[in-house]
Amino acid sequence: MTVRIAARRALFAGALPAVLFAVWWFTSAGSTDFYLPPLSTILQKFPEVWTADRLMSDVLPSLLRLAAGYLLATVVGIALGLAVGSHRVLRDVLEPVLELFRAIPPPVLVPVIMLFAGIGDTMKIIVVASGCVWPILLNTVEGVRAVDEVLGDTCRSYGITGPTRLWHLVLRSASPQILTGMRQALSIGIILMVISEMFASSNGLGFTIVQFQRSFAIPEMWSGVLLLGLLGFLLSLLFRFAENRALAWYHGLRRAQRES
Questions:
Q1: Looking at residue 190, what is its pLDDT?
Q2: For 73-83, what is the mean pLDDT?
Q3: For the whole model, what pTM was predicted?
Q4: Is residue 138, in this structure, part of any structural domain at all?
């Protein structure tokens, strides 16, 4: 039954992209628009452009920056979220400030970050982290606030406090919401990775796409956009797999509650 459900989910997940590609293929076939070439032309350019050397020189650095910024945002978001969610006074003090900074679009901060971080990898990592941290932080706060009070009283009754309580009660109870924030942050991180590489960069996926656009290599530019979409899709699948493994106990509990 589990294999059947997994196969059905995989079919549903791949059905819409397949339909969209088919629509793109047939609607663009025979196109003479310089800026909207046929999908067949884009696919023909794809292996010519994205060779192993270009993947190593442009795509790999982008993924490493994304990973560094995403991990930094995860650590900061969870740590600060645990503190804010656990202490009412701290939440009352920081909430207005957090709402203020959350409302600022991260791309607007790119020129500001460049002033003190330069134009190297540090700037790009900070840009990614500045956008990814908010969904992780806010979901962690809500997850910590939603911890069952009965379980909290039980922990106090048995003398379970400190790091043990934090690990086995708070983080475990808040983990579904934390991972929801991390999933939202992943898509934001991919967007900011590309935006940061469009500013004073010498490599990266965003830099390469802009270079193709500036040199009017339109099919090559579209192949970069297509590659970016494929990377986002693969990263989403990997995250979903890791999430299902990490929250296997949670999903099993929900299935048991539905069946009872």
A1: 94
A2: 94
A3: 0.89
A4: yes
* 242 alpha carbon, distance to own chain's centre: 13
Domain that holds residue 135: 40-259
| 20 inside domain | no
Tell me if 10 is assigned to some domain.
no
The two tokens of residue 125 are: 């990592």
Specify if 33 maps to a domain: no
What is the Cα–Cα distance from 167 to 161, expressed in whole angstroms? 10
CA dihedral 143, 144, 145, 149 (to 10 degrees): 110
Distance separating alpha carbons of residues 180 and 142, to the nearest angstrom: 11
- As given in the structure block, the two tokens for residue 163 are 């790091």
Considering only CA atoms, which of 62, 80, 60, 82 is closest in space to residue 70?
Answer: 62
Q: Give start and end residues of each alpha helix (H) in the chain.
A: 2-28, 39-49, 52-54, 60-86, 88-102, 110-117, 121-145, 149-157, 162-165, 172-197, 205-214, 218-246, 248-259
**CATH number for position 251:** 1.10.3720.10
How many independent structural domains does the chain possess? 1
